[in-house]
Amino acid sequence: MTEQNGNYNGLAIEVLGLTKKFGDFVAVNNVNFEVQRGEIFGFLGPNGAGKTTTIRMLLGLLTPTSGTARVVGFDVIKEPEAMRKRIGYMSQKFSLYNDLTVEENLNFYGGVYGVRGRKLKERKDYILKMAGLVGRERELTRNLSGGWKQRLALGAAIIHEPEALFLDEPTAGVDPISRRAFWELIYELAEVGTTILVTTHYMDEAEHCQDLVFIQRGRLVAKGSPEEIKVTKMHGDVIEIDCDDAARAIQLLRDLNIFEEVALYGSLIHVVTDNLPEHLPFIKKTLTEHGVQVNSVERIAPSLEDVFISSAREAEKVIGR
């Protein structure tokens, strides 16, 4: 029986066998995961992997083809309206009304969620301070920068103090400083017990999550904490190369056709190999012989991006069979 007063068990989100088909296309395929109360949970995957479809099912906006899910104690299929009153949602488009002022947007969303009177004033005061928008209450939303719109959209999503908050690519298209400031706000919300599920394709953001899942072509290919995933899901070792001509070095190494992955990370090159003892000296020798000055070649701990690429490649081999 569903608890109606928030006293559900320690799981804020429970997903079991969740599947969504559109005709013959399987957008989400037998997905299973759990999110603890008060946790920051990352949902990662490339565009078209099934992230947004999954979130729309968890919000009760799409009916699953099969499987079940419970969010803050409510069955998303049988009790979507009761569930929505207890959750917040922020999309990457921010869902704001540009022709309304900052305060009018907050008033509107307060009304949608039934927040009125003194409570609405308290929540608006809190949100304006949290978002750094004090003094801009009467400014038209269209005139705000991307970072300010992002914070206002977050405020609108939490005006009713939801128990769980869904953020779908919330930092897409904003500058790095705004991204960092936004994550500070996410931490503050988690510290007071809000459960947060966030989709992102920024691997540095994924590092901030307590638990993660990777989704690829509708299937989960990895799950666990960032450190657990790095330990259990990395296929091969990562070699980092610092040299004077990265573009030429990458082409030389790819032409060898013996490495799992050769990719540029900033000004450095990451090579994934399943034969570290042989390939480590071979890389330096090959580049040097072709006139590339090598400053360093060393094995490093994999980044989450390394693991994500490795997991996605392994999944493609399985899915493609």
Account of the protein in words:
With about 325 residues, this protein is α/β, with parallel strands linked by helices. The chain folds into two domains: about 10-225, Rossmann fold (3-Layer(aba) Sandwich); about 235-300, Alpha-Beta Plaits (2-Layer Sandwich), CATH 3.30.70.980. About 35% of the residues lie in helices and about 30% in strands. The chain has eleven helices and 14 strands. The protein has a six-stranded mixed sheet, sandwiched between helices. The longest helix is centred in the middle third of the chain and has 16 residues, at about 175-190. It starts with 10 loop residues before the first strand and ends with a helix. The model is unreliable at about 1-5 (pLDDT under 50).
Which features characterize this protein?
321 residues; alpha/beta; Rossmann fold; Alpha-Beta Plaits; four-stranded antiparallel sheet; 11 helices; 14 strands
Give the C-alpha Rg.
23 Å
Determine the oligomeric state from the structure: single chain
CATH class descriptor of the largest domain? Alpha Beta
Q: What profile does the largest beta sheet have?
A: 6 strands, mixed
Alpha-beta content class: alpha/beta
CATH homolog superfamily of the largest domain: P-loop containing nucleotide triphosphate hydrolases
Cα-to-Cα separation, first versus last residue: 42 Å
Number of helices: 11
The low-confidence runs, each spanning 5 or more residues with pLDDT under 50, are 1-6
- The percentage helix is 25-40%
Question: What share of residues are in beta strands?
Answer: 25-35%
Quote the CATH topology of the largest domain: Rossmann fold
Please identify, by name, the CATH architecture of the largest domain. 3-Layer(aba) Sandwich
Strand order of the largest sheet: 6-7-8-3-9-10
Order of helices and strands: EEEHEEHEHHHEHEHEEHEHEEHEH
User: Into how many domains do the coordinates divide?
Assistant: 2
Number of strands: 14
Quick check: average pLDDT? 90
Overall 3D form: globular
